[in-house]
Q: What sequence folds into this?
């Protein structure tokens, strides 16, 4: 089923990334967790291999998932951070370093919100091809809730980086 704009406004999109330890295993554990908290069958993008941004030297595995949930954005953020900690990510860490698991809310039902703990949509999503390409996989008609820019245009204008579809795909 191709999502419609109405579907996009009721959905939650979460970016998944890992480049420390066993990234495949971390993504599989994250997949099981995200499936367990979604009130409908989640839709997972392809897995991509991407170059790291910042001081990390190890490539990332990245993906995006579309879920449904009755939780608030802050409740969901708390659950995502708990899962990151359970999978070995410290609660304090330098920006752009290697990590066992990174779970970021990209879009929460089209909500536009700026809070200390959470800004929605994710303030860096337009600059992150490693988020935009997998987001396109699960929501090809998605439109940025603030700028109203279609995802295809965001992809065209995003900074280029080394990114490719992984041979490993959730198995």
A:
């Amino acid at each position: 089923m191709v999502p419609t704009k109405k579907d996009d406004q009721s959905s939650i999109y979460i970016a998944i990334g890992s480049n420390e330890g066993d990234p495949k295993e971390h993504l599989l554990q994250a997949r099981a967790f995200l499936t367990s908290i979604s009130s409908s069958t989640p839709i997972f993008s392809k897995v991509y291999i991407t170059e790291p941004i910042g001081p990390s030297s190890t490539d990332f595995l990245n993906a995006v998932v579309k879920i449904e949930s009755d939780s608030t954005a802050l409740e969901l953020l708390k659950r995502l951070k708990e899962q990151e900690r359970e999978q070995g990510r410290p609660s304090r860490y330098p920006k752009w370093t290697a990590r066992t698991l990174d779970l970021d809310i990209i879009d929460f039902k089209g909500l536009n919100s700026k809070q200390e703990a959470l800004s929605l949509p994710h303030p860096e999503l337009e600059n992150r091809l490693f988020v935009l390409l997998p987001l396109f996989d699960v929501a090809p008609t998605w439109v940025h809730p603030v700028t109203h820019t279609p995802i295809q245009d965001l992809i065209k204008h995003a900074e280029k980086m080394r990114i490719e579809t992984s041979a490993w795909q959730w198995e």
